[in-house]
Here is the input.
Amino acid sequence: MPSRGLPSAACHVVVTASAGIAITFGVWLVRLFVRTTLRKPFGTDDIHCTIATFCGILNSALAIGETDHGLGQRESEIAPWIVRRQQQMAWVANMSFILALCFAILSVSYLLVRITKLTSLVRVTYAVPIATSLWAVVAFCLITFQCKLPDPWDFEPQSRCIDIYHTWAGIVIANAVLDVGNVVAAIVLVTNIRIPTKTKVFIIVLFSMRLMYPHLTHVMPGEEH
Here is the structure.
């Protein structure tokens, strides 16, 4: 039976978001433990990783909160003020989602900058953060002002909003391209380091795993009900 009297779809959101929070925070704690154990100073990559972690946790927490405000239910069965509150929470969650993606990419980029001493590669790795920052500004503005003021979170009527589906498609595709940029930089870095081939392959696979992130499974605003 669904917990808290929630419909099945909402329960799935709660379980998935809760697992995401636990895993995300756990991974951050492991990184913190490793960093303090090695007694290495915190760098720009650690700062960006921390911001990305808590933006991701905020996004998942808001998704859980949305289930108490109609997420997973038919809009016709929910009071208008509850629908409005859920739309507002989804709007903030989407902005935190953009920030989480942005700082996650920046964290990887600055990690590469931190460990490489190859001048040509440093230029490449700095190109990704610059492009990521520009992407984040554009994406953040598009989502913030997705619908006309004074209610940018309200999709009714849809004629007052941008084409949100294609907007999100463009955002996640551009984000994937930036992730590929970091993977390419990592490959160039590894091929210029004298380490065993098995270690090189492992490092490349590790960085490439970021490309498995299911960007396109993100719930599109306006489709929650």
Remarks:
- The longest helix spans residues 80-115.
- The chain is about 70% helix and 0% strand.
